[in-house]
Amino acid sequence: MANTVNQRVVTPEHLLFEAPRTKAFITGSEAASEAVRRANVDIAIAYPITPQSETMERIGNLFAEGYIRDYYRAEDEVGAFSAISGASRTGVRCMTASSGPGLMRGLETIASWPGHRLPLVFLIMCRVINAPLSIQPDNLELDYMLTSGNILLHGENQQDFFDYTLAGFAISEKCEVTLPVAVAVDGFFVTHARAWVEMPSAELKLPPRDCYSEAVPMIDNENPPVRIARDAPIQKSNFISYQMHAAWQQEIHAAHERSRKWVSRYINGLVEVVNPEAETLIVASGSAVSQSREALRQAEEMGKKVGLIKVKSLRPFPTAELRAACRHAKRIIVPEFNCPGWLNREVRATLYGHSEAKIADGPRVYGGITMPTELILEWLFKSE
Amino acid sequence: MALRTLQVSPGFMRFMPKEYQDLVEKGPFGRKLKLSDLGTYKELLEEHPMCEGCAMAFFIRLALTALPAPEHTVIVGTAGCGRLSLSQAAIPFVYGNYCDTNGVATGIKRGLALRFPDQPKDVVVIAGDGGLSDIGFSQVMHGWFRQEKFTTVMLDNEVYGNTGGQESGMTKRGEVVKMAPIGKQFEKIDMIGLAKTAGVAYIARLTPTNPSRIISTIRKAVLIAREVGPTYVQAYTSCNIEYSIPPEKVLEDARQVEKERYGFLEIISDEAKAFLAAQDAAHRE
Amino acid sequence: MNGNEYRVKPGPEGLLPPAAACCGVVLSEKGQGLVEGALKSENDTLRVMARELLTRQNPTIFPGPLVLWAWREGVADKAASVLELAHEIPGVRIIPMPDYRPIYPKIDPEAVINPCHPNLTIWHNKIEVCVFIGVHCHFANITLKMIRAGTNCYTITLCHEAGHEDSMASLPFADANQVRALTETIRQLKREGLRPRYADTPGILLTAAQEALSQGLVWQPAPVAQ
Ligand SMILES: Cc1ncc(C[n+]2csc(CCOP(=O)(O)OP(=O)(O)O)c2C)c(N)n1
Ligand code: SF4
């Protein structure tokens, strides 16, 4: 175990909003690992997959430097995600990361984290799901995450990846939340490209996890009860067992609702709205937001007013915010980097009965294709 | 000290249920107990819903009795019959997914080592043959390769008991069970040999015929895992339901199987031997 | 949001009532409480709690592991404050929740409450007002939902953390001071002339199970009436 580097503990609020920041021109992988450097992480467990690997390699270096207290390369994703779940039960702060196929391999484990009430941070560097094999960016795996019970943030760029990762730990460990937080970005576009990222000093770090102030007891034999099947296997086939499982599931959804306050505080709102008065709106998340910003600028040059709603948090979903922002909309498009259009589905379900707007079924690219601004503009003004 | 978690707040004892009053006053925590003490104290596990006369239930009861420091022990289990009783024991029990025991145990062991560097915490996986030799195989092997310091106990009933009697990797070749309609087509997996190859510090194979041997084996396995490296105990715990063994014949069957193919076996690494010798010496002083 | 119209009333709420948090009920800040889902001052919340405890049938305190076990500093004092509270509620019972495992072979509702089977275990559903204290939030929330689904019990939570939307009255960040404030509020209501429902049977009642135990008898639960 490496010696821990001396860093000063500050509140999440200070680290995220108050501490002076300096700029660095870095990749998303670097931004994520710089966040982890300041996150007071106890254990990180890695398993390689492109485009995630570079981040977890860097985090391995943080272990060697003494910023993280334990680290290893696991046998596979199920092994990594299982071990993280064990570590989280003991009250230490932990994190892991994956991409498309790796995430799919570990999905049973990922979907069991919330029910086990495990605070942890899971970074997702989106990549297509096989088959056929490809390593290109495409965020189809987030569709599977939407019903997994994890809190799910979707960063637009390198700066978001840094900020959301730090925020993730703070949100995850709130007693009334006590849930895993997944922070996703689109692979390559964010992970491997450089951009300016503003960061507080590396001499600062988050406070350690306060594990006795969470929704469940720790598995450490130091807090009561001694007799605990925390993960209560439901052994009986009777109504009470069904009802207990139902109440347990409801509790996960309730915790999502309670997390709204903290997600909103730590990432500055669940949405960002540009040109709220516009009648033509783009709703997007992830790097589709960056492309949309550029399309919006080009539309403005053409003398057309377009609005943009950046969805930062997919779970909890910004239901009220989206309804409010789309009240006057006449036309909405939802540019996405995946084939089925999961964000489009979410937007339709949310706005049903709350907006008169026509919601276009696209535009979408996938398999690694980039999203040209022309495509967005074409979809924006298609009906005119 | 963890025993504080077993101190009833002043004034509340009279509202506590009987089993807790007993556990607090007559429990095994913080005491050095022997097999002959059974019946004089409140055991970690008493009532459970496993089948009547089940050898696995019997083995689990004794295995829990053997834990050297139950107040600092975590048990990790999974789907399978054993969890039915393990979840009732007065010891933290972790149940994740089917396959994940040894990954979860790795995380628990490492997490506890970080939080309590000066207090040894024992982690013991207790799971079925299917859970460890089939679906959880990779995590078992890699935990061994990584030399994770916890104990793995296989409850080897040579079948998937909990799901109704399907073939497992530990089923004997030729056995006709569910999903092996023409008999199992390959040999019982040699987990003992694999453990040896993987450098497991203490390996033992046994049947439930000899209670004091169960106790000494489990105790050694837990202590060696605490100090030296991974340990593995493979216990034949017949399933009387799936193999149609009448409850009163369970021990007879175990003796027979022990004689034919499941004899007591211990493989101890040099380092573990030295540790045991040092322990013995300290004991004699 | 749906606004704050959803009211968390005593049940039975039916087959599967929603989680109040999913119906727009938001947790209060420190210094405030929730009454039936609406934000109230701490004082108003305490007065509602006190009134319900004094007037409803079979008031019962359900202390959880975090007060039953004196595992760290401060617990003994908090436990003492719970006993002080109990002494001000005539006819109260104390039924512990010492752990969270799904108890086998079956629950004895006179001996324990357990989150895996709560509405079977709140004393044959004869408890019409209860207090949760020292229960980990996850298990409290599950239990509260099940109690509201199946019984008419008025649930009160003195939560050491952020509080509970699914209880009818909830106070967050409650330590021994808040428990003592509730005790004081009960005394105040009595001074104001409220006659407790069980004024004639002051003190803490033992359940039959506790009674038998205290006399050294081994008690068997009565068969559940069909
Ligand atoms: C991922 C997953 N696959 C399959 C199952 C179904 N399952 C539950 S218990 C079990 C068999 C248990 O057999 P074994 O591990 O040998 O334990 P035993 O019941 O014999 O003690 C299986 C296959 C499951 N719960 N989860
Ligand atoms: S099914 Fe077999 S192994 Fe499982 S409890 Fe019954 S007898 Fe024991």
Describe the protein's architecture and organization.
- The complex is a heterotrimer of chains A (384), B (285) and C (226).
- Chain A is of the alpha/beta class and 384 residues long.
- Chain A has two domains: 8-212, Thiamin diphosphate (ThDP)-binding fold, Pyr/PP domains (Rossmann fold); 272-381, Rossmann fold (3-Layer(aba) Sandwich).
- Chain A has helices spanning 12-18, 28-37, 53-65, 77-89, 100-105, 107-112, 141-146, 158-172, 239-266, 287-301, 319-325, 342-351, 373-381, and strands at 8-9, 21-27, 43-46, 70-73, 94-98, 120-126, 151-154, 180-186, 194-200, 204-205, 271-274, 280-284, 307-311, 313-315, 331-333, 358-359.
- A seven-stranded mixed beta sheet of chain A has the order 4-3-5-6-8-7-14, sandwiched between helices. A five-stranded mixed beta sheet of chain A has the order 11-13-12-15-16, sandwiched between helices.
- In chain A, α2 runs parallel beside α3 and α10 (287-301) crosses α13 (373-381).
- The radius of gyration of chain A is 21 Å and the shape is globular.
- The N and C termini of chain A lie far apart (64 Å).
- The model of chain A has no long low-confidence stretch (mean pLDDT 95).
- Chain B has 285 residues and is an alpha/beta fold.
- Chain B has a single domain (51-284), classed as Rossmann fold (3-Layer(aba) Sandwich).
- Helix content of chain B is 37%, strand content 13%.
- Chain B has ten helices and seven strands.
- Chain B has helices at 18-26, 55-66, 82-86, 101-115, 129-134, 137-145, 191-197, 211-227, 250-260, 270-284, and strands spanning 73-77, 93-95, 122-128, 151-156, 202-206, 231-236, 265-268.
- Chain B has a seven-stranded mixed beta sheet, sandwiched between helices.
- In chain B, α2 crosses α8 (211-227).
- In chain C, β5, α5 and β6 form a beta-alpha-beta unit.
- Chain C has a single domain, classed as Rossmann fold (3-Layer(aba) Sandwich).
- Helix content of chain C is 32%, strand content 14%.
- Chain C is globular and about 50 Å long.
- Chain C has 226 residues and is of the alpha/beta class.
- In chain C, 57% of the residues are buried.
- The mean pLDDT of chain C is 91.
- In chain C, α1 packs across α6 (176-191).
- Chain C has an eight-stranded mixed beta sheet, sandwiched between helices.
- Chains A and B meet through α4 and α6 of A and β1, β2, α4 and α6 of B.
- Thiamine diphosphate binds at residues 79-82, 97-99, 128-131, 155, 157, 159-163, 168 of chain B.
